[in-house]
Every structure is written in structure tokens, then in C-alpha cells.
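Subject: mismatched residue count in predicted assembly?

I count 1269 residues in my input, but I want to confirm that the predicted structure covers every chain. Input:
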Amino acid sequence: MAKSVRAIVIAGNGTNCEREVAFACLSAGANVADIVHIAELISGRIQLKDYHFLNLAGGFLDGDDLGSAKAGANRLTYAKVHGSHNTLRNEIEQFIADGKLVMGVCNGFQLMVKMGLLPAVGGSFGEQTSSLTFNDRGRFEDRWCYLKVDSDSPCIYTKGLESLYLPVRHGEGKFVVDRTETLSQIRSLHLAPVHYSNAECQEPVMEYPLNPNGSLDAIAGICDETGRLFGLMPHPEAYIHRTHHPRWTREPDLPEEGMGLWLYQNAVAFIRNELL
Amino acid sequence: MAWRILVGLKKHIKDARGERVKRNIADHLGIHLTSVKTIDVYTVDAVLSESDVHRAAQGPFSDPVIQNYAINNPLAEDFDVIIEVGYRPGVTDNVGRTAREAIEYLTGRKFAQGEAVYTSVQYLLSGQISTHDAERIARDFLANELIQHWTVVSKSKFDFNRGIAVSIPRVTGATPPEIKTVDIEVSDDELLEISRKGMLALNLEEMRSIQNYFRQDNVKAARKEVGLGAKPTDAELEALAQTWSEHCKHKIFAAQIEYQDEQGNLQIINSLFKSFIVQVTADIRTLREQQDICLSVFKDNAGVIRFNDDWSLVFKVETHNSPSALDPYGGALTGIVGVNRDPFGTGLGARLIFNTDVFCFASPFYNKPLPPRLLHPRRIFEGVVEGVEHGGNKSGVPTVNGSIVFDDRFAGKPLVYCGTAALMPRLVNGQPGHEKRARVKDRIVMVGGRIGKDGIHGATFSSEELHEGSPVTAVQIGDPITQKRMFDFLLIARDRGLYNAITDNGAGGLSSSVGEMAEDTGGFEMHLDRAPLKYKGLQPWEILISEAQERMTLAVPPKKLLEFMKLADEMGVEATDLGEFTASGYFHCLYEKKTLTYLSMDFLHNGVPQMVIPAKWTPPNYADPDVSVPQDLSKTLEKLLGRLNVCSKESVVRRYDHEVQAGTVIKPLVGIANDGPSDAAVIRPLLDSFEGVVVSHGICPRYSDIDTYHMMANAIDEGLRNYVSVGGDVSHVAGLDNFCWCDPVLSEKTPDGPYKAAQLVRANQALYDYCLAYEIPLISGKDSMKNDYMVGETKISIPPTVLFSVIGKINDVRQSISMDVKQPGDLLYLLGLTRDELGGSEYFAMFGEIGNSVPRVDAPTAIKRYRTINRAQLLGLVASCHDLSEGGLGVALAEIAFAGGLGLKVDLRNVDIEGPLRVDHLLFSESASRLLVTVSPRNRSSFEALFESQSCCCIGSVIADKQLDVIGLNGETLMSSQLADLKEAWQRPLREL
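Triage response: the counts match. Full output below for your records.
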């Protein structure tokens, strides 16, 4: 195959969802979806630059012991790649500069936010302007949520979509910002492609349990201005097939393909059109 | 010097943790505070520059968007009392470990030996609180004095310049390592004293056989050659005590039991385990020949059955009761992380695919005085749930099935059952994945966490009742991340063929893991001074039996050692070569080249004397309950739905990730609002296949009050009936039995031993009878036999309890069935006879009664029904299927209706009953083997044809109106309940827990 879409899923130190994320990439048409342990990247044997689509999967990096993904962000910032002067963070920044795609789900989203990769208004990578903190209820919860998609968002993953239904599974998913300007930029630039909403997926909602964590503006995910970097708390890789849907036994008309797959299909289509 | 970094939330950020603590303090202690805020404290005991400390505080330790930090200065303001809670020396501090690693990345320098980060939390309490209340809050809620220490400071005494004084929980006062010997040429009384003082939990006969062993001339001669005298070393006694502990050796299940039944017939049973458990499995395997699904049973850490041509299924269920009684969070966390290592360490290793949890507690609303040393059931509930939540979620293993059983006798000892299943390749590098064998000259390699004093005497401790002197070291705290790293590494090592055998370090630590693996070769030589320690000061015997968590032991061929160690290093996993497997015939440990233990492998493993236990069965007889038919059965049903054993456990279920790995097809919560109670879980472990695993369980300790034979029969039936409800294939199924008993051995403390032993015999008889009738081979199991609480004159014994777990297969998950009703117009069928069987029922319990008519299981009829329902499911005739259990027909009707968001019209005159039956008994009888099924009218004739000549009655239909309408035996309207009311009654009790 001359031109193949190559996805990578970083694993290790507490990631949990790498297998299903890789499966989602393949189901969406990626030719390669490698699960790569972070030690392989640090050793330099496997290089990020050989891929188009970087997936940061859900889990509990280092147990989320210093706050979700904090220790994980610290590792990427300081861990040196053998035989190079770069840290993994430098390599990710180069990956982004090359116009490639990064999607973080749940712990991966927390990681992107805490590394300052999202929303990174004006391309200001590195400065953390928002965060994800403890759910208002103070507890981990596994629950399916309705999401309204902002069709004006530059997010390439949600292009053409109106609504989604996906599970959240987290204890630290409440989106907050450092100051009101950050929020107004997110709003005016449409950097929040997905919002927790009512069952009709019409309006963002603040009420529990529809909004499971009390996120500001009911924000469930954030992208950067290019739309190529995207992170969200709900798990798209958890709804790839109809049997993932919690009510598939009572909704015979559900399509075979799950809604989460659409995000990966959009990513693969973007790579085929723009990067190959 | 030690630095203190304090991290707190900015003023405008909600402190969700603090608010939860505030609510809990009100609920648990009745102390109402105006606010609780929290501050995380990192005490960094390492040589660092000031700028590095600032970078750490700014970077990994705090979040600039939501938090502030201070270094060596207090952060606290606006409070009335501040309480700081930290760990005691030597207690696992997971956050501290991560914090240390973060600083190491940041500075590029590893911490030196003795350097560490210790974490603690400050709680800032506001409101009117006396010093006495503050102490209570610290002692009875925030901290657990077994593992934590605390400081309480009121605002007036708080030093706003320096904060709370630094305290470093470094392990100190180490005595130099030493090998001691013990003189056992002493009187019987003194032998017992040695056992008691040393926490060896060995009885006189066992002590005497040890004495006899050391008296033998050939033993003396062999010892002399390795430089040992005739007296055993401390390590040798410890190794024997651990290997011979009830926990490891199952002495009660291996005992000779003299059983006398109610007619006075005497039967001698040589090992319950061999006579019933092993035997029934062997008989079924013979019976089924080609259809036998068992691959590895009773010999490894977990049982293994066939899944398909390429994969095998591994399953194990454990209990972690005693540790959970002492430290509910740590005990339960360790329970789940610990049972994870069992399937992982089976055969050549397996990837974990799901967890199950079953808890038995006293009511969280218990309001009577508690005997000393017992934690309040609510605290146990919260701690255990949180421990399993952290253990399961952080390990990335979905928790898919479980239940919570309430009975106030579990105040004496809560039961915490944790199960884990895994998927194993049929072949690993051409070898059967479920087989393993250490070879002579293989290296003994320990992998994972380091060794501390954690859990020393855990194995012997769980073989004892809870008493005043229960040791602090009996509690361990699991570390899911260290374990996850180890598992990531080991799966790669397995697939590269880098080891010959693997096993878990659980109870008994290295002594047990190496001792058992060495049975393959007939001996080993291990150098304990090479083992990596958490801190200095462990005695050699402590290294040998420590139960420090997250460790596996492997047999690595010498040729592969280098590659194995290199991979471990690269993946950040500690691995240590401790010695080699030999054919010497000896359990040989050394410390700094001096022999520490030299025990014959044969004596160690086979030398324990068989116990003889008397058992006498006298059936109890209770008063027949004098309860008249309630006037308003709707209200009665609501009350039953709100009983703790019946009500919704959603608040707990949602705290477990039940969908990670993206394979959960039938989730624990189902129905129109994703909140109905599923009967069983269906998992698709391979994302590119529709073959599924089905898992369920049965547990009914209430019936033990009448007859444990029927308790066991009902537990097996309940497990299988839950399994079949969702579509599990009854021809591809296996079972696991986990016994939790109260001490059944006659002694001064246990004068009713013969009755309890008879209960044990009867449960085993039923286990044999019903597994055979259902053709469910047993593949693994466990027993925990000392679930009593005894302090002073107070004794609380749990009701004899067996968790029967069921695992099997569904060929295509798209054919699985959920319990919620689906369509108005669908017909409602009740399969199975309803009898006047309310003995031990939830309905009788509601009136404080037990009764005598315990449900009896008619196995031949039941298995026929289950096979037929499988056929109906495969033909697509079944819209919903739900089992009837606690609360009988009434509860099941309500559940399927509100789960589906549709009403039911039911005519009780059509129920298939045996003999005359009062209407309340008809509604709430717990007769076994019954299922409620809805069927589309177009499938009516095919469905009824399948069940021709079986008990199958159409008792009503699904209606669009959201109500449960029931017509009574005389054609009258017996009940007309709104679904919303029924659901509210069912959801309310535990909603906020």
C-alpha cells in the first residue's frame, strides 16, 4: 500500500483504553494502529514522526495521584528520548507543527489540557489556561451522556455531526478555565465542539446527571483553532458497535456502527485528504 | 532537610472532596459543620535545591488554573479546627511514590536510599466543634489509626507563620538482621505458647509433628551439612506456619469429618474438598467426555476452561474479609488488586477482562451499640466500595457483576468477595497456555513492588478470629499502578517466551510462591539478602513471608535472564534474581550466605497432620410466622422493594467503570433509563468477534438459618438461572464456590462446632448433588473459615455463606437478552411452579421471622427449563427474561416493568401453583428455578410449543400505561400501583450512599 493512514496509541503507566482506541482507528479505516508502550518511544526505537494520528487513551496515568494526568504530563515534559536532545513533549510539539492529528479521550484529554495543548488559543502551546477537576458530586461515575455538537466548531472530528451519545467514566471531568477571557475565546472561536445536553441534544445543560460533572458551559470537549487537536471526556471508542449502546436490546433500529466511530472516521478521512 | 509543599484549591473553585467529607461527617457522626476544605501536603525528605522544590510545586504538584501552593509555610486560613492526617511509618503511600517519581523526572536524578516523599491531607473544619468532636472526626472518620496518624489543632493554637510541625513517617529503629533459633524441646504447654506468642496459629498436634521432624537423625545430619543446628530457625517455623495455615492448606476442608445426620447415621468423610468438590468435577468431566470444557482445575491460581479454538477463559474469586474489617479501603483495594494476580499468574499468564464484587455487610443504617474494635457498617460500606472502585478502575478492568447482601451478623465480619476473569491464548509459543513448569536451574526472579513489613502474618491472621491484639502489619494497601506496569511488562515477556512459570506473591509471600513453584523441581535455593526492600530493618524471616503487594515470582531460564532483565528495566519494572530452582528436595533459603531454612519439601507440603472434626446435624425448628395477609399489598410490595437486599445498588454500580475495554454488552444497569437491575453480565472479550463470556452469581445466606443444604442448592440455582436469563449457554458453563464460614471446629470457644461443621457438610453435599445434576464443573474456589468476631464475652458469627459464581459462554452476544420488558402487547410468561416456600424469605424477614419452608430446588425440572429457554433465546422468541429471587414474583414483576418503562397487567389465577397458596405467599414466595419472560404475540405458539409439558403459564401482558395491575385469586383487583411509586421505593434507600 503506497499511502497508508498510520495511527499510534501511547500506552503504559496506567493507560487503560489503548486496545479499544486502536480497534476504533482500524474500524474507521486506518491502515495501521500501533499500540506503543511509552518505553518504546523513550528508547527511540519507535518514532512519533512515522505516524499521522496520535491517540492519548483513557486510563489513570500514574494513578492520577497528583491530580488527573499531572504526573503523566510531567513525564512527557521531562523524559528524554534516547539518542536525541528532545523530550517527548518536543516531539509531540513537532508532530503538531507538522499538521498532524492528536485526540485525547478522558485521561488523554486531561493530559492535553494539563500540558497546555488545549485550547492553546493563538497557538500558545504550553500555557495551561483551563483544567479538569473533581466532578461536582465528588465521585467517579460511569454514565452515558447526550452531547450536542457545535456545527460552527473548527473541530475536524465532529464535522458534519449534530449529536452524540457516549459514556463518561471519570471522577475528574469538570471543565474550568483560568479567567473569563479564556471562556469568551472558547465561545467566540467555537473551540468547544461538544456540550453535555438534554436527551434531544438541543441545549447544553448544567443539571446533574445530564451534565455529569458540573462542567462550565456544559463543555465536554475542547479543540484548538486548527481543529486538529481535540480532547473530550466522553469515550468515543466505547461506542463503535450497536451492542455497546446501553439500550441495544430494546432499540432494534440502532445502526450497526456506533456514534463514536464517526469521530475516528472523520480523522481518517482528514488524513487521507490532507496529509497523504 | 525536609520540605513541605502544600497545595490547596483557589477560593472560587469548589472543593468537591471537602464537601463530600462534610456530608459524610454529618451522616456518620451527626456532627454538622459549616464547611470543610482540604489541602494536600507533600513532605519531601530529600536533598533538593530550592529552585527544584519550586519547580515541583509549580509543575506536577499543583494545577495553576485551580490551585495555589506554599512551601514550608501554611496555606490554611478561615477555619476553626485543622486536622492533618498522614500515614504511619512503612504504610504504602501510592501518591508519595508518584510524587517521588515526578521529582526524579524533573531533576533527572534518582532519589537516594532513605529519601522519600510522604503525603498527608489537611482538613480545615469550620463550625462549632469542641475538641472532643474534632478528635472523634479524626479518629472515627478521617483516619484509621491502624495505618494513619493525625494532628488536631484549633485555630487559637495554630501557628500562622509555620503551620503544623513537620513529621516524617520514616521507618526507624531498625534492629540488625539476625537468624534466631527456637528451642522446641519443651512441654506441650510451652509448645502452644511458642505458637501463640509467635502468631503461628499452629495447634498442639501440628507443633508436635514439627518437634518430631526435627528429632529425626537424618534431618539433624542434613542440617549439620549446611551449618544448621538441631533447633529450627525463626524463619523455618514461620515458613511452616504459613504453609500449614488454614488459609493456605485448607485444613478444615481437608479434615476427616465424622458426620452424624438427624437419624443418627454416622458417615466418615475423608476431606470435604476431595469427596465433594474435586469429585463432582471429575464425575462431570467423565460424563461429558468430548464436551468437557475444563482445561485446568484446582491446581493453579485460577481455573481454566475452553473459550474457543484460540483462547481459554480463566476465573478466580477470592475473599478479603479480615483486612477489610480492619481497614475497609485498603483491605478491599488489596482484595481486588490481589485477585487480579491470580488469573494473571495462572498457566503462563493471562490478560484480565473483568472483575466481579459481592459484599456482605450489616445495614449502613445500623443504630445499635457496636462491640469494641468494630468499625461502623456504614464506614465499612463506604471504604470497601471505594477500595474496589480504585482497585478496579485504575487497573483498567471493568467491574461487571456483583451484589450486596445485608444481614446485621456481618457487623462481626464483613465479607468482601472479589473475582477476576482473564483471557489466555490456547497456545503460547507452541505450548499450552494453561500449563507451566519450573525447571531445575531456572532462576527465581521476583518482579514488581518491593518488600516491607506489609501483611506479615496475614495468612495466619485470616485463619484467626478478630481479637484485641490483631496486628497492625496485617493490613496492606494495594498499588494498582505498580501492578499495571508489571502486567504490561509480563504480557510482553510471556509472548517472547522469557519464562517457564509464573505465580503470584499473595498470602505467605515468597515462602509460599517459591515453595509452591519449587514442587515442580523438588527444591530451591534462594538468597533473601538480594531481595529489594522498601526500607531497612527487615529480619530475614520477615523478607521470606512478607505479603507486600504487586509482586510475582517467575522461573526464568538462565539463557533468557539477560533479555528478561533488560526488558524489565526499560519498562520501569523492578526485577531481582533471587536464586535458582533445584532438585535438592529442600526448601533452602540463605541470608548473606548463611543458611536460614533447610526444610524437607516433602515435610513442608505433606507433613501437616489431618484434623478430625465432629459434626452433628440437628435440624432447627422455628415458629411458623403468625402474619395475616396485609390489607394493602401495593404498600407491602413497596416496602419489600425498599428492603436493603432488594433495593437498587445503582449508586455503587456507577462508581465502578463497567465498560472499559469496550466489551460490556449486557451491562449491570439496563432498561429504558439505564437503571434496571441486570441478572448477569455479557462481555465480548475479543473486539473482532461476537463470541461472549457470561458471568453471574448466586448467594443466599438467609436460607442457612434453616438448612445449608438448601442454601447451597439455591445459590447454585440462582447463579445458573441468572446466567441463563441473559442467554448464557448451559452446556458451556463452569462454577466457582467460595465458602465463608464461622469456625466449625469444636473447642471451648466454639461449643456449637458440631452443628456448624454439620452445616458445612450439608452445603458440600448439595454442592455435589446440584453441580452434577446441572453439569456445572467446579473449576476453582476458596474457603475462609474463621469469620467470627470475639472480644471478651461477645461473639458474633456470620451466617454460613457461599458465593456461587458462574462463568460460561454465549456463542453470539447479539442473541443476549436483557431483563426489561420491551413492547406493549408482549405476553408475560411465568416459567416454573410456585410453592408455599417462604422459609428464610425476604418477606418473612420483613416481619422479623424465619419460618421453616425453605425453597427446595427440583434440579431435573430446572435444567430442562434452562435448556429450553436457551433454545427459545437462540430462536429469537424471547423479548425479555428475568429471574425470580428475593421478594419472589411481586418484586420481579415490578423490576421488569419499571426497568422497561412499561406497565403490566397480571392475573394471578393463571399462576402455576402447588397446593393452596395465600395470595401474599403466592406473590412473595421464593420458590427456586423460576423465570419471568415476555414474548411477542407473533411468537406465542412457537414459544408455548417449546415449553409443552413444562410449567409455563401466560400470566398477563405488557401494557402502555405505566402501572402494575394485578388481579387476585378471586378475580378482584388486588393491586394497581404506579410504576413511578414502585421505582421510587426501590431507588430511595441507597441512592445517596
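The mean pLDDT of chain A is 96. Marking this ticket as 'not a bug'.
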